[in-house]
Amino acid sequence: MLLNSHKRAVGKVRILILSCPKTGNVWLRSLLAYAFRIKVVDIPLSWTDEFAASLPEEFVAHQHLHPTGEMLKWLIEKNVQVFTTVRHPGDTFISLFHFVKWNKGNADVTTDRLGEEETPGAEAVKYIEHTFPKSYSLSTVWPALGAVPVRYEDLLADPLQKLRQLCARIGPVSETALVAAVLMCQPRLFNKGAVDPRHVRAATSYQWVDALPAPVLQRLQGIEPYRAVCTAYGYDWVDRRGELQLFDYDAIDPFRGLDYFDNGEKIGYVLKSFYFIDVERAQGRWPDPACVEGDSYWKWLSSPCLDSINNLKYPAQTYSNLMKVIWDRRDDLQSVFPDPVDADRAAFADWFVDRILLETDIPWALVAPVQAALAQHYVGSLSKQ
User: What separation in angstroms does the CA of 341 have from each of 43, 328, 356, 373?
Assistant: First the structure.
C-alpha cells in the first residue's frame, strides 16, 4: 500500500512534509498551516511509535527523515497527507552552503568541514560526493512511495495556484483562506515574523549560475542522485533567469504592498496577521485596510471592545479590540490574565503597555490610548480612597 492512497483527507487533517533540507519545507509547512488553521509541530530526527502517539489530532510538520517500516505503517494507518518539496540541485546546495555557515558550531547541523569555506571549493565537492547524496535522495525516495512532490520553483512562480491544487487533495479551504495564507507567507515577510529568517535567504532560483564554480557544477551535473532528480522533475543546467516571472503579491493584497497606514504608522506583520487570520470578515468590512478614515481597520483596532464598554468599572479604552485579539490568540496570556474584562483588567493593560512593543511590531500609537486610560483609572482609584 502506498502513501496518500486517499485522494482527500478523511476526518482530521494531518500533513507531513518529508524532504531534503533547503527545498522549501518551511515555506510549504507555513502555507498549509495558515490555510487549514492547524498547529505546526516539531518532528524529532528519529521516528518512534511513542512520539507518533503524542501528536495532536491535526497538525502539519516537516522533517528530513528516511523511510522506516514503523513510520510508513503509521503514516498509512493515520491517513497522513505526505508531501515532498523538491528544488534544483544547484540552488538546494548553495542554499544549504549558506545555512551551514550561519549555523557554524551548531552540533545539530552535521556538515563535515563545509562551513569552513568562504566560497564553495574542495570541501564542497567532497560534501556533494559523500554527504549530500543521502539527503538529496529524499527528493525521489518519498515520491516513489506515494508522497506528492512539490517543486520549489512552482511555489515561486504562482504560490496561490499551487497551494490551491495541494489543498484540493487534502480538504476544503476557502479562497479567502488561501489568499491569506499566501500573503502571510510571502518570502519578503519571513524575516518579519513568519518564520526564522535563516530558513529563507534569497527566495529565488538560479542562484547556482553565479555562485557555484565549475568543479562543483561538474559533480552536481555528473553523478547521482542529482542526475535522477533533474530527469524526474525537468531541471537542467541552462541559465534561464531571463525567463523568470515573479508572482505579483500586490495584485491579491488588500494592503497593496504598503508598509504604512495613511496616518504614517507602520502596518507590520502582526497587524496584517490579525487582519487576515483573526478578525472575522475583515477583508469584506475593510477592503482598503491601510486607510484610517471612517469605519477603518485602524479605528477598530484602537476602539474599546464590546466587553470593555459593558464594564463601567474601568475606562473603556483599557481593553481595546486589539488587546482582545492578542488575548484570544495567546494561551500564555489567558493563563496569567484569565479575566481581562474585569478582575485582571488593570494587570493585563499594564502588561500590554509594558511589553507589547518589545514582543511585536505593533505601533505605539495603538498603545498610547491604553496607557492614558490606565493612568486615568489609577487616578480615579486614588481619588476614591
Answer: 38, 12, 18, 14
Q: Could you tell me which of 336, 80, 100 has the C-alpha nearest to residue 198?
A: 100
Distance of CA 364 to the CA centre of its chain: 26
Q: pTM value?
A: 0.88
CB 91 within 8 A of CB 205: yes
- Residues 68-107 have pLDDT tens digits of 999 999 999 999 999 999 999 999 999 999 888 776 655 4
What does the angle CA 34 – CA 35 – CA 39 come to, to the nearest 5 degrees? 50
Question: For residue 7, which phi and psi values (nearest 5 degrees)?
Answer: -70, -30
Task: Tell me the C-alpha distance between 180 and 184, whole Å.
Answer: 6
Residue 358 pLDDT: 95
The Cα–Cα gap between 35 and 43 comes to 20
pLDDT-flagged residues of the chain (< 50): 107-109
CA distance 195 to 184: 11
Name, in order, each residue with C-beta under 8 angstroms of 46's C-beta and a sequence gap of 6 or more.
none
Residue 308 identity: S
Region 14-243: CATH code: 3.40.50.300
Domain boundaries, the chain: 14-243, 260-383
- Tell me how far apart the alpha carbons of residues 174 and 277 are, in angstroms, rounded to a whole number: 12
